[in-house]
Amino acid sequence: MANIEEPTVLFGKSKWIWASDATRKNSNIILRRTFSFGQEKPPARALCRAACDTHYYLYVNGKAVVWCGGFNRGVKQAYYDEFDIAKYLVKGDNAIVVYCQYYGEGGRDGVPSKRAGFIFECNDLNIYSDETFRVYENMAYKTPRHTNCCYAGSGVLYDASLEGQQIQNVLDVAFNSSLFTAATVVDGYPDDVNGVLLARPLPLERFSAQPVIAKFKKSIDQFDGDTYAVTLPREMRVTPYMEVTGNGQEKIKITTDRGECMGTFGDETSMYEAHCIEYITKPTLNIFEGLVPMTGETLIFSMPHTVRVLKLGYREIGYDTEKTVELTTDNPRLDEVFNKALNTLYLCMGSTLMDTPERERTMWLGDSSIAARALYLSHHDAAPLVKKVIDDILSAFDGDVLYSCVPGDLPVDIPAHGLLALGEYGIFSQYLNYAGDVEFLAREYGKLCDYLMLWEMTEHGVALRDGNRRWYDNLYNIDEPLIENALYYSACKFMSELGKKTGELDYQETFEDRMSNIADYIESRFDGLGYTSRDDGYDDRANALIVICGLVPADRRNAIARLLAATYNASPYLEWAVTEALAMLGRRDLALKRFESRYSLYADSPESTLGEDFNGYGTKCQSYQSSVISELICVFCGIDVRDGASKITITPDFTALKDIKCALKTASGELEIRYKNAPNKTDIIIENHTNAKVVLDIIPENVGRVTERRTITLNKGKNKFTI
Question: What's the predicted TM-score (pTM) here?
Answer without folding.
Answer: 0.96
